[in-house]
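Hey,
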Amino acid sequence: MPPGMAGNVNERVRAAITLMVLFVNMILCLVSLLFIEFFLSKAVPVELQYARAVIYPCAALYAAAAFYLFYLRNYHVARLLIVTNILLSCYAGMMMTGGFTISPVTSLIVLPVMFSFLLMGVKAGILCALMLLCLFIPASLMEIYGLYTPVQLIPNQLVWQSIALFVPLVATALVVFSLIFYEMLTRRLQYALQEERNRFHWDATHDALTGLPNRPEFYHRLELAMRTVERNHQELALVFFDLDGFKPVNDKLGHHAGDMVLQALGERLQAVVRGVDTVARLGGDEFAVILQDVSADPERLEPVLQKILRTVEVPTSVEGTSVSVSASLGVAFYRAGCTQGELCKQADMAMYAAKKTKRTWRLYTAELDT
C-alpha cells in the first residue's frame, strides 16, 4: 500500500475490499468464460459472438486492474477499472438477456453502486448512481415504447426462470458478504490503529532505554499527583537522586556497560515502589520518584527511602564484571500552594545538600534556602 494511505482506516479498508472484489470477480469472469466456450458455443452458437464481445473485454479490464494494483500499486486506477467493469458487465448482460424490463439479471444493477461506495467513497457512489439512472431510464423507455428490441441469449424458458430465481439470491449474498467483510475489516483495522497509537504514545512518554516515564511524562504525573493529594488531603513526597560512581563505569567499561546498569536499575526501582507511585528517568543518571499518600513523618518515611537506596546499591553484572553505584536522595514534601517548579527545586536542593554532607538522604527544610 502507498505510504500516504497506510495511516487512513478508510483507505486501508478499501484496499482490502479492492483485493477481495477483484479476486472474486476474476473467478466469476473465468467461470463465465469457460461456460461460454464449452457450453454456450454448443447450445446457442448464433449468439456466441455477443457473449464473447462481453466476456473478453471484461477479462481484459480485470487483467488491467490487477496490473495497476499489484505491479504499479495504483489503487485508485485499479478501483476505477473494477467498478467500470462491473457496471459495463451488468449493463451488457441485461441488454443481451431481454433488456432492463424483463432481464433476469436486472437485480445486479445495485452492485456497481454498492462497490462504488465501498471502494471509492460517497462521491463516487453518488456519481455511479446518477450514471445508472441516465442509462436505465432512457433504455427502459425505449424498450417500453418499442424503439429498441434487446437481444435474447437465453431462448430456453427453464434456463431463463432458473437464472431469474438464483441471480437475486447471488446478488443479495454478495451484498451481505461485502458489508459483513467491510464491518469486520473496519473493526480489525481500528483495533490495530489504536494499538499503534498506544505504542506511539508509549514511545513519546517513556524513556527508550529503561522503559521508565521520561521527563515530560514525569511533570505530567507530578501535576496529577499534586492535585490528587490536595483534593484527598494526603501527603506527597518527591525524591530526586542521581547515581554516585556512575561516570567511572562509562569511562572504564564504556557506555554499553552504563546502559546495562541503567536498565537493570530501572527494572529494580519499578519493582520496589507501589502502583500509585511513579519512578521516572529525567535524563542521564538522574531519577525521580513520586510517592503518593505517604506519612509526613520523616521517621516513618525513612524505611521507604532506605529501600530505594538498597535497590540502587545492588551490584549489576556487566559482562562478568560486578558494577556498583550509590545515590544520595533529596526529599521534599508537597505543601498547599506550592508550584510544581518550586517542589522540584526543593527536592533538587535537598539532593545536593545530601551529597555535600555525605548523607544518604536529606529532607528539604527552609534553612536550605539560605
